[in-house]
Amino acid sequence: MAEVRFQQVGKIYPPRRGGAPVEVLRQLDLAIEDGEFLVLVGPSGCGKSTLLRLLAGLEAPSSGEIYVGERPVSRLRPAQRDVAMVFQSYALYPHLSVADNIGFGLRRSRPRTPLQQLQDALHRAGRRWPSPLRLPSPREERIEARIREVAGMLELGPLLERLPKELSGGQKQRVALGRAIARQPAVFLMDEPLSNLDAKLRTGTRSQIVDLQRRLGTTTLYVTHDQVEAMTMGHRIAVLNAGRLQQLGTPMELYQWPANLFVAQFIGSPAMNLLPVEVVGPGQVLAAGRTLPVEGAMAGSLAGRGGERLTGGLRPEHLRLSQSSAGTLAAEVSHLEALGNEQLVTCRLLEGSDLLLVRVEPEQAVTVGQRVDLAVDPTGWRFFDAEGLALPR
User: Which of 47, 312, 321, 350 has the fewest Cβ atoms within 10 Å of its own Cβ atom?
Assistant: First the structure.
């Protein structure tokens, strides 16, 4: 196990067809603690997969340095970095059995003399021969024991002799995980490993990966687009955009206290509601023509900002349908999503036409076109300045 550090890492791809160079990563600093499960999220093209490829040695950084433990690895060959990568496409060898796919990295982990290679090959060829005719190979016997151990972890024991074409998607993904686990690397890299699985299988495999990482304690970098994966799997989440680190923190830190508007909109499903507000007094803002109170951690952040225009953020759970009063926002229901355990109600404010999304109980009667009033939780406000940065609490 080892910590991983990216220090001022940049990646620029050369221009193509007369275009400009493409800067994918911009002097990025990021530290992953020993044994940590870090999830990387961000829009397509933000540099998530490039970051993994740089650490794996499949790409070379244009600037900066990457460390695994105290060892700089940017100039080492991939085999020397002590990392293992699980790809979105599984990348299994179609002509090899499940057992041989799992053991592939183990068999290439150390150089062998021609005599050792011959001994290993004869041992493998004679596995089904009677005992007196088998040629022993201590190295192969250790590898086979490790394969059986990993197969037992992943419930692949009955499948060891099958070829990849004879496996389901979930089984292929477990074989890819097994190949990475078998080598006992210092770092696991996982690039959207569950994106090709159906919803039910994805849920089960997600739990299996989290449980394995907890038992093995291996430092893990995990790339995903899935909000549920990001919020439920990682110890911390790193949000990237345009090659820059936007925020690094626990899932609840990012959800409750986004550092900027980008994180506020990207983390959370559904995203945070945003609307323009004006500070009109201590602990008060004007939104959609109504003066609304601000309490809790954000109340003090408005001190000295009278008359300033800000962007106010509210999570859907910080709004509720209410009776009309001076402290509610008048709106009209424009869309409904019934999810079984809750309803997501999209409301258009009658003043300003901003859209706000509200979580309501599944049994609450709401119809499209209905006139409603929205009450705001005064402790739920988050505020962002003209540059899109969050006001400190």
Answer: 350
